[in-house]
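Researcher: For the record, we're logging two predictions in this thread. I'll number them. Prediction 1 follows.
Model: Prediction 1, sequence and structure:
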Amino acid sequence: MGNNPYYCLSARNQERDKVAALDLGADDYLTKPFGVDELLARLRVALRHAMKGDEGTQALFISGDLKVDLARRRVFVGEKEIHLTPIEYKLLTTLVRHAGKVLTHRQLLKEVWGPLRTDEAQYVRVYIRQLRNKLEAVPAHPRFLLTELGVGYRLRAENDALRETPPA
């Protein structure tokens, strides 16, 4: 499934605390004391959302000649199928789900390797390099897997690929 949801259960019930938690990425905020019926209703909502899956993610991602078939777990550059390791595939599909957006090293580590590896930025660098070697025609000058210096990485979305800047 897509991004993992985050829920807050807190004794802090001031509006600014709730707003801060939601702005930091929480999907819901429940304050103590709470009723069991309210908790169960919120759990039912969370389960409904989880059962829907990644409706925002299309089954086929295309950017230029890069094609990622999420339904069949296949990756192509042009007509050539590219074989990826499980970690490479998970990293690529994480970038696909957020195509066009910059993801920090920490975000990528958390989604691909889990919450215990968020300080291991070299993992991301190594696997991005491996992906570039497999997906890019010229890995030193990537067209798809872009570095955002000092921040992280971005997978070029189709509309980005069409707006490449001409040489000056």
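Researcher: Logged. Prediction 2.
Model: Prediction 2, sequence and structure:
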Amino acid sequence: MTELATKLCLACFRHFVLVCGVARDVCLPGIWLLLAMVSIAQQSVPAPPSSPELSRAVRTWEFLPVVGTRAGLFGNEAGRFEAWVYPLKIFRDFHLTFHVDDRALPAETLARTLTVRPDAASIVYVGDSFRVRETLCVPVNEAGAVILLDIETEQPLEVEASFTADFQLEWPAALGGTFEDWDERQHAFVFGEEAGKFSALFGSLTARDARVAYETNYSSTNENSFRLGATPKGKETKVLVFAASVTGFADATKTYQRLLSSYADSMRESADYYRAYLDKTVSLELPDAALQNAYDWARISTIQGLVNNPYLGAGLVAGYRTSGSSQRPGFAWFFGRDSLWTSFALNAEGDYSTTRTALDFISKYQRADGKVPHEISQSASLVSWFKDYPYPYVSADATPLFIIAMNDYASQSGDVGFVRDKWDNVWRAYQFLRSTYDSQGLVENAGVGHGWVEGGPLLPVKNEYYQAGLGVAALQSLSNLARLVGKEDVSKQLAAEFDRSQKVLDRAFWSVEINSYAFALKQDNQREDEVSVLATVPMWFGLQDAEHANQTITQLAAEDHQSDWGMRIISRQSKIYDGSGYHFGSVWPLFTGWASVGEYRYHREFPAYSNLRANALLGVDGSLGHFTEVLSGDYYQSFSTGSPHQIWSSAMVVSPILRGMFGLQIDAERRQIALSPHVPADWTSFAIRNVRVAGIGVDFRYRKTADSVVLETKRAGSGDCWVEFSPSFSLRTQVVKVELNGRAVPFKLQPNGNDQHVLVRFPIADGLSTLVIHVKNDFGLALTNELPPLGSTSHGLRILSEAWNASKTELSLQVSGLAGIRYELSVWNPGHITSVEGAVLSKPGKLEIQIPPGSDSYLQQKIVIHFARP
């Protein structure tokens, strides 16, 4: 503070004492308020950071979350919010009113534009003679939040802030009797309970004219409010803050005062935190701008699931939604399987620290018999959660996922020491799995806990294929973990058990009758022959026979399974289907992500990319910058009861891009980066940066021409490092030679039923290295899908299958489209085509497909593309 400011402040304090004429305990808060006013006057509102930003016209119904690791604001784009400092709910129904002349204008009627950044969100309200920008920020490590109001007005305007107090603990704990009152000294409402342990404040340095909720025999109101002082013609910034503590009023006050006096620093630190996060994790440069934007926001949205609870520690919560008059904000408590599925995305992008935090958190609450927790409320330590409630261990799938996730983390990060520390947890999880084996040696659900499906007409079953597949994948993972920690005999035994179990799994669940893997086994070990997207989970881990996987994918690629906005859990043609059924008809981005990764693994890039892109586009068409939990199976619309910011939905943008489309996999032990891209045929370039293995950072740049694919690598750090590069080509493409920095190097061709990969393994030297794959007769098709208008049904094209003849002179496609609609495919190297049946090669590089008119339904059509003999 400058010398002049100090003198002014002290002069004001003396005047304050004179006016008060009262004791020291009244005046000491006064000097803090005066000092804070001087501090605020010297602060400048931080400029928007150079990080992702999204903006659109306000949708009043859409969810708007602003979160840190210790607090959150949950509301809608009209500007109504509830406030949380975990595990406390402070208030709900916060909203603004603008007073101009003798009019009181509700802010929600004037909300016009929303802008979101990783660290903050802003709503612009516009009246006839004024504009107010409300910026909401929850500093990433603070137990509170800041609300800035930037006011521009042509005539005097005063803002009133109103809310309903709702001072309670998150479900299922409760505080009982609580109170709120106005504290004139703090210019804030104070919240508390009789024991004095839990406390909160909400106010502003300019707050005045408070109205306090009351109840009498004759009248009552639940609403509290305060005004912020009139703004004359011109510009002015008002600052509101709330803060809370679980250790008493003094601690809450300290946080409240710190946020008021240094809010700009707190906001800047939050912006820096997210910028640094994007910089230190894997970054991309993609030719698809929508996909590029979605990937960046998915990384942000995923890490926003990290919560630090003062009683339980740090871990990943499942998602966010307003709680309304209840005390349960969406899925903002800790879930085992949600964290574990999310960890695969975190590992892929190189955020091993958060994965380790999540695994450590979950392992702390593992049951004595080895079962891994399903859900842990943020108030679990304040009630007898693990003893008296049915929820903590209700699922069966978290246990095998824990083993799989531990192996994925160790293999990619190289953190074998963590595995040694957690070996007892991992081994007990395996012992629990063994206790659930049926007579075939497959883990079961009956009497153990639900797999994916928690209720509805798909139940009851004995073994879900989803759950049984995870059990088999866990054996393979545990075998590797045992090897990493030096338990070679155990590793070999588990590897042998995995080999046997994988064969049993395929025999038990493959159904010739439906040409697909069955949903489950019934009590009599007969298959429940329902085709389900859940079959793509064993596919994700490579457990399926290739031909069986392809037949399953062909069915799942059809419109009755794959909507324009993602994968239904079962077919629309099923007798038990209901588009509003949470577990028997709805679309989950989680399912869509499973399908995409599995389809890429089995080289089915058309449905894989459609699923990937459907998930990605949700981030700009719902809760802005976030990815919803669940949507209707019939209409493009999120469920009204779902969590609009669901963490594993965000992760299911990252995993399909990195693990699926790019085939990115780190092997820390071998110091190797595997890159096996199935990129769309019309992509001529992309870049992947900051891929890290064993302390070495590597950047990749890919370029494609008609006769070559070029991969440039650049490394930073010392030590050996290898790349295993195996890009996808059509089966027609011929490889002439491969060169590394101008010298020929060996390569292998790896064909399959859908494409072929050129495998090259090479060391990355210091500086820039260039690998060139020279080809001829290269060819490809690309389909770019879009989301339909809100409330619509599906209308996009589906490519169900593709097949080359033996001489590679014919490519047959089976497609499905809406009757009467014309579709386009992009063609790479169209000059190789001699003729087309069932479609037209129209403008350069485009293949037009006209579906015949008819009823309002999908029709199949065969297309045959003819080529000259290679």
